[in-house]
Amino acid sequence: MFYALNWSLVAALLALWSLVAWALHAAAIWTVTNAGKLSGGASEVSVIRLPEAIAAWVPPEIVQTVNALIESLGPVIDRLLQAAPVLAGGLTVAAWVIWGLGSVLLVVLGAGMHGLIALWRRRGPGPHGVMATFSTPSR
Questions:
Q1: How is residue 139 annotated by DSSP?
Q2: Residue 95 in contact with residue 25, Cβ under 8 Å?
Q3: To 10 degrees, what angle do helices 2-35 and 88-123 make?
Q4: Do the beta carbons of residue 48 and residue 70 sit within 8 Å?
Q5: Which residues contact 92 (CB under 8 A, 6 or more apart)?
Q6: Which residues touch 114 (CB under 8 Å, ≥6 apart)?
Q7: Backbone phi, then psi, for 125, in 5-degree steps?
């Protein structure tokens, strides 16, 4: 009975792991494939400036440097968003590898628990324990 409970738990965890991996993969693929549609919007990063409340307390050279850095990030972000749909194939491979590793770990966990159950049943808690009453033949 303990073996059946053990492997039922492993099967349930494997099903849950597969569902979570599938859902995260689907969400990641959707995000990556739709990221290219956002390109062009990153060029509007130049309108972002350091807030006036902070700029009043910071030296003007730092304000100009930060604003120049923010403006230079626009084209970089735009290129990254245009290249994002290409990453979808690699994301699928990564999802399969991670799912496979997790599945192997769950099966190894189940095998370890199977071994512990077998060890526990073999040793038993002693002559007056619960296992002794089940394992002694009736006279």
A1: -
A2: yes
A3: 170
A4: yes
A5: 25, 29
A6: 3, 6, 7
A7: -85, 5
CB atoms under 10 Å from CB of 84, counted, come to: 19
Q: What average pLDDT does range 69-96 have in this prediction?
A: 79
5-39: pLDDT as tens digits: 999 999 999 999 999 999 999 888 887 777 666 55
**pTM of the model as a whole:** 0.57
Please tell me the distance from the alpha carbon of residue 82 to that of residue 42, in angstroms, as a whole number: 11
CB burial string 4-29: b at 16+ within 10 A, e below: eebeeebeebeeebeeebeeebeebb
Written as six digits, the tokens of 85 are 């749909």
Are 96 and 17 spatial neighbours (Cβ–Cβ below 8 Å)? no
Q: Give the pLDDT mean for 88-105.
A: 92
Extract the tokens encoding 131: 């296992």
Single-letter residue type at 32: V
Percent of the chain surpassing pLDDT 70: 77
